[in-house]
């Protein structure tokens, strides 16, 4: 065997196992934690941060927290269509899980002081999904953001 074929042989030995094992249960990975805050203690109508970025094929735990004194929505229709949802967990202030919701999620409403965790795997790229709070007047006041998936 000449050296070129030896190289090709060695590359295929090392690459092949990765190629056949590319799939599997993508929802069973260790989640990457991202946090977004809906408003703040002074009732400012903003998302903190107002830009979230994800990557396809990775499991995320998006912690959505509302520290303000009013209700807010996390609405991002394009994003909802580009991810596979594993679950949404409602957690108490002591970080205890109170409920787990399974199935497709389009929008989450978070009550004052509450937190929900959205576990999902992005399956489709997305340039800039329009994130907003759908409570009357909040989008207009600046409660908007951007979500991208690469
Ligand atoms: Cu709002």
What's this, in brief?
The protein is of the alpha+beta class and 150 residues long.
Q: From the alpha-carbon coordinates, what is the Rg to the nearest angstrom?
A: 20 Å
Instruction: Find the CATH superfamily.
Output: Cupredoxins -  blue copper proteins
| Sheet with most strands: strand arrangement | 2-1-4-9-6-7
Sketch the topology as an H/E string, one letter per element. Answer: HEEEEEHEEEEEE
| SSE-based structural type | alpha+beta
Largest sheet: 6 strands, mixed
**How many helical elements?**
2
Description:
The chain has a single domain, classed as Sandwich (Immunoglobulin-like). Strand 1 and strand 2 form a beta hairpin. It is built from two helices and eleven strands; from the N terminus they run αβββββαββββββ. It is globular and about 70 Å long. The chain is α+β, with helices and mostly antiparallel strands and 150 residues long. Helices cover 15% and strands 41% of the residues. The structure holds copper (II) ion (CU). The site of copper (II) ion has 6 residues, from loops. Copper (II) ion binds next to loops.
List keywords for this structure.
150 residues; alpha+beta; 11 strands; binds copper (II) ion
Helix and strand layout, with pairings?
Layout (H helix, E strand, L loop, with lengths): L2 H18 L11 E7 L8 E2 L2 E4 L5 E6 L6 E4 L1 H5 L1 E9 L5 E5 L5 E4 L4 E8 L3 E7 L11 E6 L1
Parallel strand pairs: 1-4, 3-11
Antiparallel strand pairs: 1-2, 4-9, 5-8, 6-7, 6-9, 10-11
Bound molecules: copper (II) ion (CU).
Copper (II) ion binds next to loops.
